[in-house]
């Protein structure tokens, strides 16, 4: 494109946005001629009067939208590459625009010179390839003349196979892909040329030939050790077959799936894979009347080593501990890292409890041996809690929780020992009933309070949203953190009432800030599993929002992966209803639960929140940075706003900002504060109130 002037049509009714687009292109040293249109009608006058290399279209236009423009252009056979620019986050919309003929899709908030120019070059190349392919197909229909030149111009490998399974034509790209000299291949059996293809491959060929149906399939081609995308089109003369090597894409998908199930530091299974394997183990041993043991390990005084030798040494220590743990168990057992210095071992298919005791003692002995870390010899010990299936629980969650309880008993018993779980380790029924009694009175006694933790937009450096965080201010016990009472509240059915109070209080506070002029401040509220699944949740929400007089557009709900994947179809339906109401949706603690790409792309989400466990590693290792960058790229591909939780250092702040993370949250910015203190933080971060609302 550097040898001639690039002809660009900008279709956007916002003059400022048009100027930004022109500046982004010209700042990259592209030589461009710009034509601007602020409406659909004017755009088509230009499109029909002259030719353009690329059209940059705003999705929202005063007399139409970007999708209708693209469709009309294709109907009128206007061969201009199209890139859609918008702030909307809708995966379905993206797919519709791509299917309609858009070459790319860029959120306006991510617009930069590099991104835009790269997208323009790719869009022009893609459009040129599409035009060339269409011309080739048209020529093929009209005449068989010059078919060789046409097929040689495409990038896919191509075979033409007659009804006797003989090759009637093969292009050079196919010869390169299948490592054959194309000369002399015409008339040869396709099966000999393809080199004993896999059974699934031959099956698709026969199906297409006999059924005269087009077939599209992806599969691993064993002979060449590559992944192929194969398109088979039947005709009266045989088959036309296109091959494309997609190995790079498959490798990327496999890498992302691996990262979703493994701890990046130690390469051990993470919580997601641990729970899956543990659940499978429980199912298997039921048939054999055997046992499964869960060992919860915590490294004693790990923080002291971290503080003394530094985080790099701490990471090295964790990797070496991982190797020792794996050496102490069988190949079929599972060693997983939950995060920090916590590990879990699943011993499956056990015949005797004594087997667990022997492994626990072996682990203690191995861990007590000195370890060389960064040139220093250190000695660490571990505390181990053990639970057994079926005696100590009949589910993966229960066994893990009880092993954790036993581990804390080992800690309190002097560390460097193991403890077998017993029911006496849990809180007594009397303590539970006392807590329940206090909890039932807390709401009516106005003992609950909300604190608010701000989130900083990395582009502006300003606070754009706050998360409402619940606290219980007990008159005698003081502040009680949520994890100490919310599970009980959910169990006894109080969580719906507490959740309603949280939403009502958060909406009222948001409205108060808006009345003071902070009209662009979004309120984020966590939603519990039971609260989300309550039948009256939507109606209750409508009532609360109406009573408080707040626009639903300023309200965002955070849900965990576990909540969403339970009864997935019902969850999708309810999430879509919330989106239709204008409420934004965020997936909280991403990476610690089920983290399936298949689930993620189907969810109507606005925001993805990276869990603090990933953020903690981002400034300590290239691997930590790599996984966070992958998560951000994945979320942006799905057009989601990305927030990183648990930002505690300036280095983390700058690293996440450089990776394109949209917003940051954590103690480095501010701990959760009462509402009256948040106004000071707004001022500190340059957020000025607009005109006061009457």
Features:
Rossmann fold, eight-stranded mixed barrel, 694 residues, five-stranded parallel β-sheet, 4 domains, 23% strand, alpha/beta, Alpha-Beta Plaits, Beta-Lactamase
Strands side by side in the biggest sheet: 20-21-23-24-25-26-27-28
Oligomer: single chain
Count the domains.
4
Overall mean pLDDT = 85
**CATH secondary-structure class of the largest domain:** Alpha Beta
Helical/strand content category: alpha/beta
Q: What does the main sheet amount to?
A: 8 strands, mixed, barrel
Molecular shape: globular
Rg of Cα set: 30 Å
Q: What distance lies between the first and last C-alpha atoms, to the nearest angstrom? A: 55 Å
CATH architecture descriptor of the largest domain = Alpha-Beta Barrel
Can you tell me about this structure?
- By secondary structure, this protein is α/β, with parallel strands linked by helices.
- The protein has 4 domains: 6-141, Rossmann fold (3-Layer(aba) Sandwich), CATH 3.40.50; 147-245, PAS domain (Beta-Lactamase); 254-426, Alpha-Beta Plaits (2-Layer Sandwich); 430-684, EAL domain (TIM Barrel), CATH 3.20.20.450.
- The protein is built from 27 helices and 28 strands.
- The strands form 6 sheets. An 8-stranded mixed beta barrel has the order 20-21-23-24-25-26-27-28, surrounded by 5 helices.
- Strand 11 and strand 12 form a beta hairpin.
- Helix 3 packs parallel to helix 4 (91-100).
- The protein starts with 5 loop residues before the first strand and ends in a 10-residue tail after the last helix.
- The model has no long low-confidence stretch (mean pLDDT 85).
């Amino acid at each position: 494109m550097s040898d001639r002037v690039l002809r660009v049509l900008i279709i956007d009714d916002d003059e400022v946005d048009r100027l930004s687009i022109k500046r982004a292109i010209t700042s990259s040293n592209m030589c461009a001629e710009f034509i601007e249109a602020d409406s659909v009608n004017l755009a088509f006058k230009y499109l029909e009067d002259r030719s353009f290399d690329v059209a940059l279209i705003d999705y929202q236009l005063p007399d139409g939208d970007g999708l209708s423009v693209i469709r009309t252009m294709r109907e009128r056979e206007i061969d201009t590459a199209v890139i859609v620019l918008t702030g909307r986050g809708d995966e379905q919309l993206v797919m519709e625009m791509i299917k309609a003929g858009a070459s790319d899709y860029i959120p306006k908030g991510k617009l930069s010179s590099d991104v835009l120019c790269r997208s323009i070059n790719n869009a022009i190349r893609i459009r040129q390839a599409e035009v060339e392919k269409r011309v080739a197909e048209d020529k093929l229909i009209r005449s068989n003349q010059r078919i060789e030149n046409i097929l040689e111009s495409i990038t896919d490998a191509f075979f033409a196979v007659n009804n006797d399974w003989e090759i009637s034509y093969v292009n050079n790209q196919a010869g390169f892909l299948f490592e054959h000299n194309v000369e002399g291949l015409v008339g040869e059996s396709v099966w000999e040329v393809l080199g004993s293809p896999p059974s699934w491959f031959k099956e698709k060929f026969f199906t297409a030939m006999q059924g005269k149906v087009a077939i599209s399939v992806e599969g691993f081609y064993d002979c060449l050790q590559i992944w192929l995308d194969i398109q088979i089109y039947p005709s009266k003369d045989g088959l036309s077959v296109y091959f494309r090597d997609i190995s790079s894409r498959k490798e990327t998908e496999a890498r992302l799936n691996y990262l979703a199930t493994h701890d990046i530091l130690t390469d051990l299974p993470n919580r997601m894979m641990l729970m899956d394997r543990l659940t499978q183990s429980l199912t298997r041993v039921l048939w054999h009347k055997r046992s499964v043991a869960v060992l919860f390990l915590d490294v004693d005084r790990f923080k002291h080593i971290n503080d003394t030798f530094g985080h790099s040494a701490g990471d090295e220590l964790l990797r070496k501990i991982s190797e020792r743990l794996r050496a102490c168990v069988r190949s079929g057992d599972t060693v997983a890292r939950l995060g920090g210095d916590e590990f879990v071992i699943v011993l499956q298919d056990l015949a005797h409890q004594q087997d667990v005791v022997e492994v626990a003692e072996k682990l203690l002995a191995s861990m007590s041996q000195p370890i060389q870390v960064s040139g220093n010899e250190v000695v660490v010990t571990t505390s181990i809690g053990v639970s057994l299936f079926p005696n100590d629980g009949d589910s993966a969650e229960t066994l893990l929780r009880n092993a954790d309880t036993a581990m804390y008993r080992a800690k309190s018993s002097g560390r460097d020992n193991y403890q077998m779980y017993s029911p006496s380790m849990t809180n007594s029924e009397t303590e539970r009933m006392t807590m329940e009694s206090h909890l039932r009175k807390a709401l009516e006694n106005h003992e609950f309070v909300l604190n608010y933790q701000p989130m900083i937009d990395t582009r502006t450096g300003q606070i754009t949203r706050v998360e409402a965080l619940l606290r219980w201010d007990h008159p005698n016990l003081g502040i009680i953190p949520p994890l100490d009472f919310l599970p009980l509240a959910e169990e006894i059915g109080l969580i719906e009432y507490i959740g309603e109070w949280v939403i009502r209080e958060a909406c009222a506070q948001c409205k108060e800030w808006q009345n003071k002029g902070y009209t662009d401040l979004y309120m984020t509220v966590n939603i519990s599993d039971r609260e989300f699944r309550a039948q009256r949740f939507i109606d209750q929400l409508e009532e609360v929002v109406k009573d408080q007089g707040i626009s639903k557009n300023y309200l965002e709900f955070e849900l965990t992966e576990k909540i969403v994947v339970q009864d997935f179809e019902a969850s999708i339906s309810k999430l879509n209803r919330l989106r239709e109401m204008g409420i934004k949706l965020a997936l909280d603690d991403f990476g610690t639960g089920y983290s399936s790409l298949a689930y993620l792309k189907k969810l109507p989400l606005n925001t993805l929140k990276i869990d603090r466990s990933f953020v903690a590693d981002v400034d300590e290792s290239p691997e930590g940075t790599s996984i966070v960058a992958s998560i951000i790229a994945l979320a942006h591909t799905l057009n989601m706003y990305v927030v990183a939780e648990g930002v505690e250092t300036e280095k983390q702040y700058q690293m996440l900002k450089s990776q394109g993370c949209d917003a940051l949250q954590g103690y480095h910015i501010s701990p959760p504060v009462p509402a009256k203190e948040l106004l000071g933080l707004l001022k500190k971060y340059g957020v000025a109130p607009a005109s006061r609302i009457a």
